[in-house]
Amino acid sequence: QGQLVESGGGLVQPGGSLRLSCAASGIGFSDSGMAWYRQAPGMERELIASITPRGGVTFFLDSVEGRFTVARDNAKNTLFLQMNKLKPEDTAVYYCQAVGTRYWGQGTQVTVSS
Length: 114
Hints:
Blueprint: E1 3-7, E2 10-12, E3 18-25, E4 34-39, E5 46-51, E6 57-59, E7 68-73, E8 78-83, E9 92-98, E10 108-112
Parallel strand pairs: 2-10
Antiparallel strand pairs: 1-3, 3-8, 4-5, 4-9, 5-6, 7-8, 9-10
């Protein structure tokens, strides 16, 4: 049974940084495309970026390009989202997903506020 578990969320001041992690098990992580999504209160879930098994990254959200980076460690079955220069509008629940599968993480809350 596959599982994705996010961690690293929290409360941060505007301009701060957070690194989210997504630990995968049972999904063949090293052969899986992965993605990060977020969902703000009252909004639809939106795709932030995806990463291929070999590490090629595509961003789908203009507002985070240049501030967020995506990486993966296939040896540790872990996906990362480094978020810098955070803004209040980045406040959301952040999810990881194994592309093309039913596997989603439970989400981790990121709150950007002074």
